[in-house]
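Memo to structure team: turn this sequence into structure tokens by end of day. - J.P.
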Amino acid sequence: MSDRKLGVLVHGAGWVAGEHIKAFKNNPRTRVVAISSRRLESCRARAEEAGLEGVALYTDYERALAHEGVDIVSVCTPQQHHADNVVAAAGAGKHIVIEKPVANTPAEMRAMLDAVTKAGVRTVVSFVLRWNPLFETVKALLADDAVGDVYYTEADYQHDIASWWAGYGEGRTKELGVSAALVAGCHAIDAARWFADKEAGRAAVPVEVFAYSGGWRKGREVEYDYFKNAWKPAPPLEYDDLEVALVRYSNGALSKVSTNYGCVMPYMLPVEVFGTRGTIKDNRVWSHKFPGQRGWVDIPTILPESADVSHHPFQGEMDHFVDCVLNGRESHCSLADAVLTHSVVFASLRCYETGQPVRLPLPEFL
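Reply from structure team:
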């Protein structure tokens, strides 16, 4: 194996890009060689923040892709740009990290997947909670048969996405944000899929979706700021703030998943896993592995209880992806797998229009 470090281009210089840069800087097999964004000042700020020296800065993405020594592109731009960014990176033969949501339409996802497949490059999508310590522990318990066969999971994204978020101006719109589940609730959908399959490194395959949407914030020019525990005027959401989906998988398991922007509370992402021989509720376990159990066994670990990107385990994700690139293997969280999570979002949107269950795969992927 060569001792040459893989070169990384970070495209997009917003909030999350700083964590991508930090993770690649800390990996001994990579180095950040370039940063690109619409504004040169943003690129420079990220480079200085990370203490990077000699890194190239670009406002032209095509020129950045052509920078000498780039092996990996980390796409951290707003969601409406992901499809074009990924297709271009794949065309340039680069391996790709893709922030979620990956795209705004099934057609965009199809184009991205076709480009990645044609180029033969590796991908990972930032459903970063798969590397959260609680999620890693729960997945290991499932693989060890702690709850038997999984027949039902629940996951809920509960967070008042609002004007405190720098991307809210675009993300709140129907055109650019699309839906609450797409902007953020896809994390809960992915968690439900991840735990609905007990095998290590595998998520359940959804085959049918039925969903409702509702809530109270759509069109209202007021929001709750949980940082200050106060109400204030704000631009309105253009889509429903509450979505609830039922999902059936090819292995027979079911999930209930919700996205809730209207909750008056701090961020939470609770998960529940029900099996034929036990149950897991967040970090509490009831299992046939504990004979004579009289109470829940609490796992002292880190839960997904903060929306701050610095709390998210990007280091685990990037280390995993670098290993995939160096060893020529696909990530369990590749673009192809992420398409299955996002398909639940788009199936839900179609269900709102028809009032009927939606079969998967979507027509765009048949």
